[in-house]
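Priority: medium. Attachment 1 of 2:
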């Protein structure tokens, strides 16, 4: 069973895209199948085999998630963020305004899905490896 300390140790090695590939491989070796990042407070829940989960603490004060998703606006914010024009917290604020409640990384499928509070997928991206 994996621990937050093991995950942090693997994450601390990430400085480049190649490092990220190694990070994903380490997570797989730890038995992690994916993780959810909650936009409301930055908390991350890692999940693996036999329903084993570990969770981080909240990283910032609670954000209010809009009740209606705005996919087009969210995609604009996502593109801006992925091009390095916004910091992570700003992106989380923008995601909340667009009705995005969490992102789900599926390590097996190598996808990142942005979901509403009702678990409706808004955007699904393939993670390059």
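Attachment 2 of 2:
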């Amino acid at each position: 069973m994996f621990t937050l300390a093991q995950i942090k140790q693997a994450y601390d090695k990430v400085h480049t895209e190649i490092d990220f590939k190694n990070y994903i491989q380490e997570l797989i070796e730890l038995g992690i199948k994916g993780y959810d990042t909650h936009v409301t407070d930055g908390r991350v829940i890692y999940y693996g085999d036999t329903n084993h989960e570990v969770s981080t603490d909240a990283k910032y004060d609670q954000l209010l998630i809009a009740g209606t998703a705005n996919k087009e606006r969210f995609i604009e914010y996502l593109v801006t963020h992925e091009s390095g024009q916004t910091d992570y917290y700003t992106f989380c604020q923008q995601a909340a305004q667009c009705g995005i409640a969490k992102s789900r990384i599926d390590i097996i499928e190598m996808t990142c899905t942005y979901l509403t509070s009702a678990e409706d997928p808004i955007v699904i991206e393939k993670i390059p490896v």
